[in-house]
Amino acid sequence: MFDIDDYTESAPTLPLYSALVGLGTAINVAAVLAGGTIGTLAGARLPHRIRESAMHAIGIVTLLVGVSDFLKYDNPLVPLISVVAGLVVGEIARIDDRLKQFGNYLERRFSKGESQVSRAFVTTSLVFCVGPLTVLGSIEDGLKGDYSLLALKSALDFTASITFASVLGWGVLLSAGTVLVVQGSITVGASFVQEIITRDMISATTATGGVLILGLGLVLLDLREVRVANMLPALVFAPLLVALASLWPL
């Protein structure tokens, strides 16, 4: 059985417990909303040149985070196969197009054209939801009411949302809904996940998420138009491949 304490012992945090399951996700949602609001208000006062440079800085850091997550896993075949398989499913389901259409709809309805609502929504939703803290923190919150990892993630997301919103505008606020759905679902289902998940499965998922984050970095730097959202099913394929490794060694 998976023991989350074994996975997080190398990077301990001060435990924060609550009888209210899901408090960590609630804090995270509030952090994104607060940071996005601050960034939106501040960004309107920044010259275009500064906002452009800030986006480049975000893109570079995003690339480095993606590479770092990918290198933590010692079998590159798992994330490779997962991303390819996930991309096929994502392309068929047109996940990226549907997310952008939703963002464009909101932009037409509520914006006067000055906000990149679709790009902000898709980009920040992916950034806030594909990292290891999303999975580990939500599981801890659901199993033990310990929201310390999600509190740490909230602080990071607060800072990131300020930066993103200052460049991309109020569309960043919409990603709070994605955080609520994704982390809330993992928290509620944590008791079921504990019975089947292993440390290696989480490591594989983290490495696969690193590939998606790397793709986001390329998009933010305008180096390549990567349909990262279509790769999201890869995060499901990665743990499945690890689970099947005994039958089909990779």
Please state roughly what percent of the residues sit in beta strands, choosing from under 5%, 5-15%, 15-25%, 25-35%, 35-45% or over 45%.
Answer: under 5%
In N-to-C order, the SSE pattern is: HHHHHHHHHHHH
Basic shape = globular
- Poorly predicted regions are none
Residue share in helices? Answer: over 70%
Kindly describe this structure:
With 250 residues, the chain is an all-alpha fold. The protein has one domain. Helix content is 72%, strand content 0%. The longest helix has 24 residues.
What can be said about this structure in brief?
This protein is an all-alpha fold. The protein is built from 12 helices and no strands.
Write out key terms for the chains shown.
mainly alpha; globular; 12 helices; 250 residues; single chain
